[in-house]
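pipeline stage [seq->struct] | target=K Homology domain-containing protein | organism=Suillus plorans | residues=1234
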Amino acid sequence: MQLTAAELQKRHELEGAPDPFPSLGEATSKPKRVAQVPTDADSQADFPTLATSAPAAAAPGKSAWGSDAGPRIKATVKSTPVITDYFTVTQPELPAKDGKQTSVGEAMRQVMAKYRVRIEASTNQSRQTTFHMKGETQKDLDKAKRHLLAALSPVVTLILNAPASTIAAIIGPKGATLKKVRDATGVKVDIPPKDGTPNGNASETNGTTAPLPGDEEEEEVMVPVTIIGPRPHALEAQGMLNEIIASRPSQRTQKVRDIPAHILPFILTCRNHFMEQSQGYYVDLALNKPEREITVSGDREGVVRVAETIKATIEVFKTSITNLKISLPKRQHRLLTGKAVDDILAQSKCLVEVASPEDPSDEVTVWGSAVDLPAGLGAVMTKANSQFIHEFPLPGPVAVSRQLLTYMARIDYEATLANDHPDVSIFTPSPATIAQASVLNIDIAGEKSAVDAVIKQISQFIGKVFGATREVSIDWLIHRVIQGKNAKKLKQFHEAHNVQVFFPPESGEQSEVLLVYDPLSLSASPSPVEKGKHLDYVVEELLKMAKEFADVKSQTISVEKRWHEAVIGQGGTTLNAIIGEDTTLSIKVGAEVGDASDEDVILVRGASIDVDRAVTEISKVVEDAKNDAIVSSYSIEFDIDREYVGRVVGAQGSGVNKLRDSLGVKVDFSDEDEKEKEAGKKKKATHQKSRVKITGRKENAEEAKKRILSQVERLADETFEVLKIPNQYHAQLIGQSGRYAIRLEENYGVKITFPRSSGENGEGKTREQLKPDEVLIKGGKRGVASAKSELLDALEFEKENNKVLTFDVPTRSVSRILGKGGASILEIKDVTGAQIDVDKTNDGIGSLTQITVRGTKDAINAAKTAILAIADQVGEETTASLVIERKFHRNIIGAGGQGLKDLISRCGGPSDTKLQAGLVRFPRQDEASDEVRLRGEPKLVNKVKEELEKIVATLRDRVVLAVEVPASQHRNLIGRGGQHLNDLQNRTGVQVQFPGSRSYNQFGDPENASEMADVDPANIVKVSGARKACEAAVEELKTNVKPAAPEVMTAIVSVPLKYHHAISQQGHFFRTLRNFGVSVEQSGKPQKPAVPTAPPENGSTTARIDDSEDAPSIEIHWQVAENYLDAEEGDSEWTLKGNDAAGLERAQSLIQEAIAQAAAMTCVGFLTLPDRSAFPRIVGSKGSNVARLRNETGADITVGRENSTIIIIGSESAVEAAKEAILKQTSSGRPPRH
């Protein structure tokens, strides 16, 4: 909708904007539009007379028929209506153009030239200019007026801070809303990209402040929207954007931080409950698991409700969740991580936590409510024992073990094992464990037979690799140079010496290079001497290469820390430009150097010439920063062929963005022929050029130019070849997981494309249109030629060694040929070396199944012989089925399938599990059927069917009985690892299910359910089996239930606080009472220490009478003071609790005796010896001597641990006796005097 000038002014006034065009008077009259008609010159109204007001003389009459009479019918003239408008402007502010002021007349002429209007202007003495406009259509008039107002107004820049959530509405679908604003107002509206949005820092125009980084609540990020254009149009655009912003709801973000780690998983399960609390408002929840915080964002009202609900839920879990800790072997921890944690949480509402692999602790913690913990513990034990786990120790010293692990990782051997054995999980040590452990193990988990197969395969592999590895130390800085300059020679090491060279990742800055004598190569020699000879040769050659490029040095530059940012540049751009793309430089800045005492340094390490160059450039950057001469407006221009522009720019600008992010430069492309077309020139049929302009710091721009020209040079050398290779050889040429094709691509710098599955037109589904027998090689000319040659050589090799043989076997024998888990077919593959494919398209329907064998002639003949030998063993087969309820399946199959194995053996079937495979098939968990299928020899099938029917009949006659067992005793009855429970079930032949177990509800209601109507469901244990066995098991469970504890008896005794320490004897007295079944609760305890403080020394010393006069004096201080002098007054009530009266009476008697003894201890002596050398003799072995002295003297003796003072407490005589005994003890151990 277009607005008139008056409406535009009125709108601006409402928003507080100044009126840019005030009128002459107090009020501005509305513009008048008058439809004009052709004027009549004879009309007195249109042209009034200028004569006096005297009446004019009557004109003489004329005959209507005379010669003066005009024609009676006048010619009609079609007139075009003219629409007018006017507006007034006070002192127009004309913008300057090219340094010159634009005049009003020039502005009017430009408008009249562009639109079909006529404009007249008049200025009065108040310098107000009125513009009169005439036009044929209202549309032209409005456009002209808008253009003229823009020309008469200065260009302004307005900043509108818009909430980030409204930006999408401002832009609109595919930019439609923003385009509408721009078209309606003619202004420029700029919205910064997401990467450039300030982090919530609002400008001063809106009067708000950004939240602190640590605040829990965050206001919505404000995005500055820039509006540039003539003042009235800019204000109009601002108003339109404000209307869009006002129509959007208020947004808010709030974070719930520091959620305890053991509570966070429980919180995540309540997500649906939290979303319900939003009550229809838009709310989004985001989890930051490492920080243990949940971000709630969306509509303000909904965010507040949801955040408060989350906090309240956390508090509830803090009070209701407790933990239980158990110990499990470290290898079983593998089964309690990842998806297993989620399974246990969903099954038992409990969380399991295990120590990290680096932590030697074997502790497992189960979190949950007290009610759920038994079920959680059962779920943890079930999961921990769900698979067989084997620890496979890697042989040799730990250094060799690390080499073996490195080689396995580099060839992705773990994925190979996973492909060959999908039912087995393989766990290799973590990097931290590899660095610290003295013994390295590989953990293998799964069914025992499958684990044994993996162990066998790993053992065979290690047997080939052991002794075939070597490490050589080469400075990591020259690894890239060696790989680049000697790529062909490194390849020849493998071809000529069968040695693979593995350089560590450059990011790790490791110097150890691993050499492996390839055990998987067909030309590998089993001789250790031969392996060592080839490895020694390669080591020698690598050291020669390293010596050739060994011009490596380090240089430390002293640069103040404040200039480090200038050296690094935004996002590391300046540092990337200094390092360059192909150099082997390592530059560490400040703290990265590792010198904690000095961070004002930069360490440069690499080839001497690169180090010198980098030091010079760093010094220049620092000097520029110091002089504030860092200029990023340098630009450089050059031409490239237009055909390479798309490749340089990259998909969705990825190439240019990479230059921008790594070097901080701006890259623009322009076509020269566009300028020529604008100038009217014809485009020449030569190579079309595109102009490249790079803007940024000079060093960065030069580096960007270098990289672009280098890429163009590579593209100019690019070619392609299409090879005709039969489709049957593609898989072998690609290699496992694309290994061979990737190696060719990396060695020769090419791209190799094989066709995918064919479409309806017979062409491969790839970007390039390839036929099924075509392979595309694209890259540099030399690389394409080399890759083509090697690929064709490999094709010839495959043709010679990849013979194909197809034959049929009876379908009934396929399961025996495959074996359980593919064990039989894998064994044939390993022994013969052939590749075997079994056709699965007929799904067992036909009588014959096709088998395809690939390999050498000898290999395929051996494989065929082995397969046919197995097929001949399978005689005529029959099939049978019977319906067995799903609840009986587990009982029949038994633990680990042992029950089914024993059943087949009893019926005269094979005992080998491979031969038993496929004989009896139970429906899977996801199948709704209860039908059990049998397939095999008719006689055996009939026997197995009869045996199954007997077992099912017995199971159907089973009963379920319930017995009451207090929930607190369930754990004791189950036993550690279910030991007691398994023993009971094996002896009685029943199944016992405790509440919370997975199969508890599957047992159905017990027969004696009516007897258990008043029993707590948590105390009901179900027993299933034959009636007699169930009754026996129930009786045994009742027998094992411990009776409830008897009623507790209490008594109260008052004990003076000052005697507390003397009576308690550091807790020994309370332990004595517990022997009588009595526990003590005290109403109060003394606050002062148990050992009295020694009084000030009075200088008195004590010496032995048998000391000689000339013997060196040994000072022994002895002081005696009154006991309980500073002791606390008052009594403490001791509440005695016991199960019988006799115990309570005995305890009361002992307490009264102890009080009497404490009252008799009236003195305290402090015996200070010169040193502590005699203390061991005084104390005796395990305190035996002190205990003897206490018994003999009746005094309490305390030997100080931090000084040489012995404190003696007792009666006066007991204290003196104890002192004399101690002094005698010390003197007996003195050395003789001379």
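stage status: PASS
auto-comment: The mean pLDDT is 79. Residues 108 and 119 are 7 Å apart (CA to CA).
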